[in-house]
């Protein structure tokens, strides 16, 4: 089973094509959304004007070769509704020690 080594949302994820290294810029530790009234209600359909990416780095073991895995990313509203739901599949390959999404 792959081991999650890094999971970090950030402003940008950069992959250097010359040496295949990965950099994450502006790691997000949280953000605030303006609310309405004394009850601090987030308006219906509110959006945050922010471009962001997520870096996930999985450590692959020798037993993972040939197996297919899925990574699921969900972003929930304060009310518990799913605002974003993404699934990415990846397969264990002998030459890849760490798999990134």
The end-to-end distance, rounded to whole angstroms, is: 16 Å
- Overall spatial form: elongated
Strand order of the main beta sheet, please?
Answer: 2-1-3-6
Class of secondary structure makeup? mainly beta
* DSSP summary: helix tally: 0
Strands, total number: 6
Which value, in Å, is the CA radius of gyration?
A: 17 Å
Number of domains: 1
* Major sheet details: 4 strands, antiparallel
Give the integer mean of the pLDDT values.
87
Strand content: over 45%
Instruction: Determine the fraction of residues in helical runs and give it as a percent range.
Output: under 10%
Low-confidence stretches: none
Q: Please write the string of helix (H) and strand (E) elements.
A: EEEEEE
Task: Give an overview in words.
This protein has 101 residues and is mainly β. It has one domain (3-29, 50-100). The protein contains no helices and six strands. 3% of the residues are buried.
Secondary structure elements and their pairing?
Elements: E1 3-15, E2 22-27, E3 53-59, E4 68-76, E5 82-91, E6 98-100
Antiparallel strand pairs: 1-2, 1-3, 3-6, 4-5
Task: Name some characteristics of this structure.
101 residues, single chain, mainly beta, four-stranded antiparallel β-sheet
